[in-house]
Amino acid sequence: MTVPVTDNQVPLTRIQKLIGTYMLQSKQTKPTGYVRIQADLTDLAKMRRTYCKEVKVRVTTNDFFIYAIARAIQEYPLLAATIDEAVENLVISEKIGVGFAVAAPQGLVVPVVRDMNGKTLADTARVSDDLLKRARTNKLAPDDFDGASVVLSGLGMYGIETFYAISPPLSTGIVSIGNFEDVVVKRGEDFVIRKMMYVALAFDHRVMDERYAAQFLHRVVSLLENPSELTGDFKKAKD
Would you say residue 99 lies in a domain? Predict the structure, then answer.
């Protein structure tokens, strides 16, 4: 994004102002905890292209993450909770939405794959691809930004190994992913090269403690490390 510079001053765009306000609000009002884990995505990387051919849809690694996050939220519903401070209750949404950060022409935006409860992995890929294309052409509607229980952010394309992103004010957490790395690991008596990735979670400590957050993140990684659990919807339909 090219920004005109006058007298060493760079004017903030409307999107930058909004993002700055939201992120400041989040840091000031949300006590945040952090957990991180390493995921072995070797099997996922091997089967992804085969799965794409089977369902005739381009399914990215991000789509696997979005879908795994949604599946894990079903088992750990506090990730879909918000705080009703007026009555001091947690309100758990019945609808699961997963947002994902996109570097759009107007700045960083977070469209949301909504109503994940009834979607398959292929459905998720179709929706996320549509949102991604519209984000990059400034065609997102206001409703496209609503309903994110958890957000996904990735910087692996820049060689970043790991980072902790700031969770948006209305989301319970944000999952941050880095790049794939070929790592030598021990499997039984042998040493093998596996494709590893760091996965981090920043979460609202008012809603859950570290143990619950760790269980959720562990479940996300478990699903990704066993991708047949995520592609099973297609295989069941095929059978």
Answer: yes
